[in-house]
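User: Here's a chain of 540 residues. Predict its fold as tokens.
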Amino acid sequence: MGWGLGDPPADYGSIMAVGLFVALMCICIIVGHLLEENRWTNESTTALLLGLGAGTVILFASSGKNSRLMVFSEDLFFIYLLPPIIFNAGFQVKKKQFFRNFMTITLFAVVGTLISFSIISLGAMGLISRLNIGSLELGDYLALGAIFSATDSVCTLQVLNQDETPFLYSLVFGEGVVNDATSVVLFNAIQNFDLGNFSSLKFLQFIGNFLYLFGASTFLGVASGLLSAYVIKKLYFGRHSTDREVAIMMLMAYLSYMLAELLDLSGILTVFFCGIVMSHYTWHSVTESSRVTTEHAFATLSFISETFLFLYVGMDALDIEKWKIVSETYSPMKSITLSSIILALVLVARAAFVFPLSYLSNLTKKTAGEKISIRQQVIIWWAGLMRGAVSIALAYNKFAKSGHTQLPSNAIMITSTIIIVLFSTIVFGLLTKPLIRLLIPARHLTREVSALSEPSSPKSFLEQLPGNGPETNLENAVSIRRPTSLRMLLASPTRSVHHYWRKFDNAFMRPVFGGRGFVPFVPGSPTESSVPLLAHGSEN
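Assistant: Prediction complete.
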């Protein structure tokens, strides 16, 4: 009776759940800040442990009936939480490092994921089928291969520094993003593939569809980014309102993801490349205040989404419904054996492609500095051992309906996925900092920092002093050899391709879409007086 006149009736259960979740996120941020310098922990592990702790408290408070504030939803994950994380990854990436190592990244993320998928699927058919856990079909084993091929390298990236180890960071980061896209595309392709009528022609169609999804998703992301750059450059939103240009950047970035999903493409790839293009063109065409705003807004949304995800996964792990079905049907030893087999397959599958593909990649490199050392290979292998929310979301998609399942064989697959995610994130995550410090001692961290390292974009543009832009430093420090023959082009393709891309970009792309050196000047705007100077700052 305490409502005011005209107040709508409130769903106090929902309000309490959301309020408690927001409070947990605040606690997670505070604890993460206090443990920033801790040798073992990182923010993702902290959030996961807090989620587990909160789930345990709720479980006891409800007398063992419930441990979750919200039911795990694939729509919430794929539509609302994943896009800001992937977009910010593309928006903040050091593009020069990323594209310089693009062939190696693609080798790991596409070829490597396919190798991992094959080993896990075949291993699951050979080993899990002997456990007699239920009627699993060929599609289920292939789905397991795709589910556990999706890595989560957040823990490693939180330890590595983009400025201290740019080469290693770009490999781990790039592989992580493209790997997620590959795994999701592979999973969806398996779901839509008719396994009952398998033939060589069907297999070729499967490969063609896989390549089409990759190409079309990338093209859509680039096109969306260029469209946003052209619109913002031509319309000069900053003349009247910086809020509008910030809003249009955010909405067009999100629109690219939704268009990809509507067209049955990979939203992850689309929004990632949209972020890269928007940071290269669109970001330079907005006002100075909007640059600061968008930089921090995208990073903050990504951070909140990541924190939310790990809390979400931690609390959902204690869902009593799934564990009750599994405990009533299977012995604890069978559950442990299943999880151990899958984890062992993940370890073997990861090693089966990281070290051989690193060797192949090194064969194409001419200098020792460009090659992947054995220590770096171990870190790349380790970074891909952790599994996260993508694996859980795909497992729910395959083995559950609306977050619930009644089949014991499906329930044990979901609980095994949760066990592997928890174990790999907590145990491997806690060992990540000591391992990286052991393999890359502090005195060697600056070894990779050279004239070839460029400041990040647009993350550190405010740190650049006017007149000291990276392009000036880069061109003075590095003499880019122009290819005089096809043999030389093949021997050092990255620098040669980059040289010709820069010429094309400066001559055709930037005059149309904006970018460094083509920043719009709004007369009468006092904040724009320094824009021509800042234009020499962030280049990627």
